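Re: folding output
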Amino acid sequence: MERSAAEEAEGLVENAILIAGPTASGKSAMALDFAEREGGIVVNADSMQGYSILNVLTARPGAAELARARHELYGHIHPSRAYSTGAWLRDVMRLNEDGVLAGRVPVFVGGTGLYFRALVEGLSEMPDIPKNIRDRWRWELNERGAERLHRILRQEDPGAAAVIRPSDGQRLVRALEVLQVSGRSILTWQAERGKPLIDRASARFFLIEPERAFLVARIEQRFDRMIDAGALAEVAELSALKLDPALPATKAIGFRELEAALDGRIGMAEAIERAKIATRQYAKRQATWFRHQLGPEWQRIALR
């Protein structure tokens, strides 16, 4: 028996605002403006801003912004943990179940496209990965490198290898561990969508699409402000933890470059320039993903 539209919408987050865009595009300011005007709550949808310690380097909202509206899912995960899209979606579900979002306009903002896809389309259930298998593939990544893992995946799961970049160690590890545990491609698991979390009919969708020169200037200026605001101290604190380099938090843009400067392996000016280049490259990848993956319901906002 088919479920009615009302039954399908039961438990969904209503009147949500989704704001996506590349790094440094002004998403957080837009989200805060919506939250203030509509009595909303800002919910982080950026994978790196969920980690603690790197407050400045990941451009998390500061004390002034936090005082203007409630913010959730910022800095709540220690960098020693690997935080996934599934874990983030469960955290959002918990906010909803606990009544945090009730009667308020939830403003989801960030640059992680898979988070928005999970909100809108749902997320397939992935198999649990035993620690020994997870450790095995992380060891392979650290000792033998991402390109070797990509060759293995190409032999075992050509479809997944075709959509995962050879340099994307984290996703390669995920694909291989899922394949080993379940005997099924991660693409098959991902195709089995779960239930959406938001009510699409009442939601508003915004995609910020800055003109390239405008965005590059913002990236350059913001990174200089990060240095002045204490990014180096955060890098030193995270580096002192001696974390597994395969963990996502260690891949925060600017961390490796500034860590190299603090260790004396490169000069500070070179580290800053490398970090700015890496940020520009990341922003370009984000913009490309959003342009091709987000549908017509997303209102494009051009900035220049």
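--- second protein (sequence, then structure) ---
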Amino acid sequence: MKNAPGATGALSDQLVGRSGTNVAPLHGALWLVRHGFPVFPCDHPASPRCTGLHKTCDGSRGKHPAVAFTRAWTLDERKVHETFARGLRNPAVAVGACSGPNGTRLLVIDSDRPGAIEDVAAAHGETWPTTMRVLTAKGHHDYFWYPSTLQLGNGLGALQGEFDGDVRAGNAYVIGPGALHASGALYELADAERPPVLAPSWLLDALATQPTFTARRKSWWDASHPKGYDRARGLVAFVLDSPRGTRNNRLFWAACRAAEDARNGRQDAQDALLQAALDAGLDEREARATIRSAYNRMGATA
């Protein structure tokens, strides 16, 4: 990860810790590009309307890409200044475009609560390594490098049902330091001088292992779910068990059935289907578009 002149010091100080400082998104974007992370703009929750590239906002303000992030990212500081001077935008990292030492790729572990991934490591008899960490509204993002020979995506692999969070690799993105969450929390670096380290082998082995069908179903359903979820249970299981090459088609079919249920006043399973699609390895933007298309076709609102 490169360290250009000016990448440390005052700029880094503004991005560290829970100081409560109103960190400008521009500062976060500049820190990222100066350290070799491809940046693009996302919607900002304080802007009057959602600026994401979608027809209908799902209400999750501050996280929607404002550009086609797989090709509109940049490492150019001049372009960053131009982009973030146009209006309020959150900085985000194009994960799949990032290249580390010796051709390694970027992997981000997104814990939905503090210590979530540390608990998983302990359960496996491992110690969670110290690496680049971005503090989020609910937990933290841990950045790692992994060999380009591995094919990783957004699926949790064998950690399905164990980990309270998500994984981002390949054609994916994460919100970066300097961004503002809809809750008012800032995304901040835990330590601006700490770069990503190589992902531990036990973690990579787990992520590369296909979860069993039973484990995937267990992660979604338990005795606390009402009877109205019986049909949704089957739709989610159908998506989770999708072989490669069929995932998008199976998601579309399941979303059509969920839209029928929602239109007829039954339990709406679209949120569960979205998470199932991500766990099955689909890109979030693609999955959302597929679900939205299915709901539109069935005359329901996604």
